[in-house]
Amino acid sequence: MTAFNDLDPLLHSQLRLAVMSILMNVESAEFVYLKEQTNATAGNLSVQLDKLSTAGYIQVDKSFRGKKPVTTCRITKAGIQAFRQYVKDLEKYLKP
Q1: What gap in Å lies between CA 88 and CA 60, rounded to an integer?
Q2: pLDDT in tens, 25-47
Q3: For residues 87 and 90, what is the distance between their CA atoms, to the nearest angstrom?
Q4: pLDDT band at 1 (very low <50, low <70, confident <90, very high)
C-alpha cells in the first residue's frame, strides 16, 4: 500500500493542484485567468505560483500590455512529469 507521504506535497495543496490542472490543458494562462478559475485571492495565488516556479514546475513571465503589467504562466516539462506522477500515485489509492 502506498503511503500518503508518497504524494508530492507541493502538488497536494488544493490551489497548487488546481493551477497545475489548468496549465496541463492550455499552452499558457494569465494570472487574472488563473485567479478567476481558482477563486483565489491575488496574494495567495502569487505565493503559490512562486512555490511552483521555485520547484521548476511552472515558468512565470512578466511583461507589459501597454502600461499594464501582465503575468503569464506555463507548465514546464518537469511540471508535466511531476503532475503525471502525482496522478499515478493518487490512482494507487483508488484501486482495491
Answers
A1: 26
A2: 999 999 999 999 999 999 999 99
A3: 5
A4: very low
> Nearest 5°: CA angle at 43, between 40 and 46?
85
> What pLDDT is attached to residue 37?
97
Smallest CA-to-CA distance from 84 within 42, 24, 31, 39 is with: 24
**Cell numbers found for residue 22:** 489548468
In the numeric block, which cell numbers belong to residue 24?
Answer: 496541463
Query: For the residues 15-28, what does the mean pLDDT come to?
Result: 97
Contact 89, 8 (CB under 8 A): yes
Would you tell me how many other CB atoms lie within 10 Å of the CB of residue 30?
14
Q: Cell numbers at residue 15, please?
A: 490551489
Which domains, ranges and CATH numbers included, belong to the chain?
Answer: 19-88 (1.10.10.10)
